[in-house]
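As agreed, record passed on underneath.
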Amino acid sequence: MEHISFGSVESLHNKVKVAYRYPEPERMFSVKPKLHGTNASIVFKGGEVYAQSRKNVLTLENDNAGFARWVSELPINTTNVDAGDSDADVNDEVTWILYGEWAGQGIQKNDAVTKIGKKAFFPICLRCIYNGDRPDYVEHDLNKTIIDFMGLADHPDIHIIPKIGELSICLNGNFDHLTQVETYVNKMVEGFETVDPYIQQEFGVEGAGEGVVFYPNTNDWETYKSLMFKAKTKAHRVNKSKSAASMKVQVSPDVADFVDCFATIQRFEQAMTELNTGFDMKSMGQFLKWVNTDIIKESKDELEESELEWKECAREITNVSRGWFMNNAKRIT
């Protein structure tokens, strides 16, 4: 079983910076809620159906919050799955990945979705990978996917994440245009600080949300993956950015400021959730590696603009991360 990653979702300023190097035409973006759960997907490949987390293939023995078990119990119509894409060449072997979020009771804390009284799968998109020369395709009509393709009409624990807005964006647009984009994004995220409108409408539950993701209206997977961007509420930002979205990269004057911005409690808690090892001193190395890898992946533009050396930052990030881990380990013991 092969793990097929969804990839990382970056911030608006990351996309703007790349677009100025490689001009990107104006296009429509759909806005969807970002749920506070754990990245999850269902893979249909070579007659097999299996579950994934963000970084691993899941099994009943190596599960993530019960998602693999839930997938194993789905009454999926494998006849439809094996039939593949009616538009594909008869010699094409099609791999399908239904990407989404596994969220709900007991998976995370505090947000509205954690109070819905159950765990549920919230699909985002269906990716189609062809064995031939065709580019990867993104299917957005997930009602058709769930009903016709998987044979799971009206499943009580599948809730397709809806589009809650739409905006035309030119990522290498002029200052006035990008200022309007910033304002739109930040205003939308501001509403999620107190109430997640989707969870309130779908489940009648009130509570804060995590934020939103902007997805380009395209069927080409590479374009979709490279242009989507996220904007989170203050409680969910793993760096100390001043706003949910900005067209400009945040510059740090020195190493101390950079570390304070990126080595945050929110990031440390995210690491512990994904690693699921607990505060065992034997697992501290995994924790430190995760934090450093995550920060260097996310902060490449900030490092470049701030003219800082990663080696100097990494040393202090490790010290701060180690201190946080050890304090929590002592508190538990």
